[in-house]
Amino acid sequence: MLIKVSQASACHESEITPQAAYLSRRTLMAGAAALAAGASLPAWADSSSASAYEGVEPGKPAAWFQEKLKQTHWQAITAKGEAITPFKDATHYNNFYEFGTDKGDPAQNAGSLKTEPWSIVVDGEVGKPGKYALEDFVKPSQLEERIYRLRCVEAWSMVIPWLGFPLASILKQVEPTSKARYVRFETLQDPATMPGQRSSFSYIQWPYEEGLRLDEAMHPLTLLAVGMYGRELPNQNGAPLRLIVPWKYGFKGIKSIVRMSLVTEQPRTTWQGIAPDEYGFYANVNPQVDHPRWTQARERRLPSGLFAPNVRETQMFNGYAEDVASLYAGLDLRVNY
Ligand SMILES: Nc1nc2c(c(=O)[nH]1)N[C@H]1C(S)=C(S)[C@@H](COP(=O)(O)O)O[C@H]1N2
Ligand SMILES: [Mo]
Q1: Which of 13, 90, 207, 334 has its CB surrounded by the most CB atoms within 10 Å?
Q2: Domain boundaries, the chain
Q3: CATH superfamily entry for domain 13-328
Q4: Nearest to 71 by CA among 113, 43, 94, 40
Q5: pLDDT tens per residue across span 176-225
Q6: Residues near ligand 1 (Cβ within 6 A)
Q7: Ligand 1, atom 20: nearest CA belongs to which residue?
Q8: How far is the CA of 331 from the centre of ligand 1 (A)?
Q9: Nearest CA to ligand 1 atom 21
């Protein structure tokens, strides 16, 4: 059993709405170059009509990614009845401060990021510490597609079809010891290819770092993503490996991960370091706890414009309460924001 999640997020073929999830066979073939002859196609791949997948650019996927893609469990989890955000928006409206602070900067600048070869250091409280080549690290795990809401703390949101591996299956492989209580994650630090790390007025202490409690990290909804929209991750979205925790604000989803440490103490996180009264360690999506400078009760769902703002109510735990609320039983979410 790969995923144990409630009925609320589990996928039922019949409930997949056409506008929520499809890409034409043509787009898939052209866009995800990785789907070579003989590759299995998602069940809904024959749907026609313009879709969120329009304009999916052909990438240059690593060989291991192409292999993994053939065995993908398509739509393992979906966001029922919610339209997928167009690929164009998901790849041109980004937060990735290593490449600049404007939403368009990552798309413009992240081409310099070299994602192959890539390795991940695993250390701390683990039975099998080491420096793993990415392809070896993910080898035993099956690729899954998961369509999740992404809610940024800045009060905008998207719906993105990720491709990735449950973090739990990857963590089990390195055998956390009984002392491990948290996971700390670190992004690549490379000023030569990351212009945002060169700017002298930067208030961020690089590298970007994030963390999860071990039970959050092991939760079946927590994903290590290597792709989106049926193809490998574009650089601006955190290639080649980034974290996705769908019930938390987007800043927990650390990009371009080079290190994972199993630790005993709650790790320091980048945004907590910048403004501890505004960004907490937990960062669970919560419409009842406002950001000091704006409400968190509502969000702008992209694409959103002046005449079609597309505003919706924010849901507790971003709509994943049924699956994750029990993780926080007894915890004051106003104090632990
Ligand atoms: N290393 C790193 N990871 C990061 C960020 C960043 O600036 N640097 N921004 C975060 C924020 S605030 C959000 S909302 C998401 C955005 O992911 P996306 O651009 O793929 O939508 O990435 C998160 N991960
Ligand atoms: Mo964010």
Answers
A1: 90
A2: 13-328
A3: Oxidoreductase, molybdopterin-binding domain (3.90.420.10)
A4: 40
A5: 999 999 999 999 999 999 999 998 767 899 999 999 999 999 999 999 99
A6: 94-98, 150, 152, 187, 208, 237-238, 250-251, 253-256
A7: 237
A8: 26
A9: 94
